[in-house]
Amino acid sequence: RDVDTGVAKWAYQMTPFDEWDYDGINEPILAELDFDGTKRKTATHFDRNGFGYTWDRATGELLVAEKYDPVVNWATGVDMDKSSKDYGRPIRVAKYSTFKDGKGADVNTKGVCPAALGSKDQQPASYSKLTGLFYVPTNHVCMDYEPFKVSYTAGQPYVGATLSMFPGPDEPKRMGNFIAWDGAKGKIVWSKPEQFSVWSGALTTAGGVAFYGTLEGYFKAVDQKDGKELFKFKTPSGIIGNAMTYSHGGKQYVGIFSGVGGWAGIGLAAGLTNPTDGLGAVGGYAGLSEYTNLGGSLTVFALP
């Protein structure tokens, strides 16, 4: 948008006719990226639909649109042919549509990746000028999606689908990854698997470290270059908060809120047991109760 007038200068729709609840709430990150020796001012966005997008932020030109979780299957890719009438649109896979069939009957679509919570939801990614890479907490989760007719009632849930969530199809089974992403090439540089979704935000520092938290409650520091784990600490509860850093009295500190909840932790936090509650998140994350407890704490570390 033009900051003086508020008028939109360009726009892009990630998932036209969204059938899976992939509404793209995720943040755009501003950077200056190198495209074959040419520096461009860009905006990079990791959408819930599982694609990482990079645009020229002045013109809106789509530069990159690639899967940042390899198991994403609702679309094979995004049409990047500028001469095509479908330029910029996802190339959908018909078998993963959740829409009614031609006779008006509801269908139970199985094995859709990602699940409705997306390959990334509200947990923010981070960019490091040291490496030129983005660091992204992800959900490695798929779903079965069965729609049904529902009537709107004011003040009541208005969800016309029964969902079941489960880990991606690859082995060993896991529900999350913390990845380093090349926004100019649209490629994963390295990936660190996690048993559950990485639901915390990422923090990168000028010291070459990336911080994030896990749903089991571990606060971790890894090397930005290769993902090597440098430090971890078990906090009292699962982490869905964002890592932060600040200085006080000439000393630098890193802090993290822990307290499991949100979509992934709704079953544990709200005492829900029906596996299809929380749009299937209760069943998908049922094992989380074996690894962490409810709570709310701020844990702070002082850097030497």
Explain what the structure shows.
By secondary structure, the chain is mainly β. The protein is built from two helices and 20 strands. It has helices at residues 266-270, 281-284; strands at residues 28-35, 38-46, 51-56, 62-67, 75-78, 90-92, 109-112, 126-128, 133-139, 141-147, 161-167, 176-182, 187-194, 203-204, 209-213, 218-223, 229-234, 244-248, 251-258, 297-302. A four-stranded antiparallel beta sheet has the order 1-2-3-4, with no helix packed on it. Strands 8-9-12-13 form a four-stranded antiparallel beta sheet, with no helix packed on it. Strands 14-15-16-17 form a four-stranded antiparallel beta sheet, with no helix packed on it. It starts with 27 loop residues before the first strand and ends with a strand. The relative contact order is 0.12.
Quickly list its features.
304 residues, mainly beta, Methanol Dehydrogenase, Chain A, 4-stranded antiparallel beta sheet, 2 helices, 3% helix
- What pattern of helices and strands is seen along the backbone? EEEEEEEEEEEEEEEEEEEHHE
Poorly predicted runs: none
Which strands sit side by side, in order, in the main sheet?
1-2-3-4
- Tell me the strand percentage band: 35-45%
User: What portion of residues is helical?
Assistant: under 10%
The count of domains is 1
Within CATH, the superfamily carries the name Quinoprotein alcohol dehydrogenase-like superfamily
Shape summary: globular
Q: Which second-level CATH architecture applies?
A: 8 Propeller
Radius of gyration: 20 Å
Helix-strand category: mainly beta
At CATH level 3, the topology is Methanol Dehydrogenase, Chain A
| Global mean pLDDT | 94
CATH class: Mainly Beta
Main sheet properties: 4 strands, antiparallel
Q: Give the helix tally.
A: 2
Total number of strands? 20
Terminal CA distance reads 43 Å
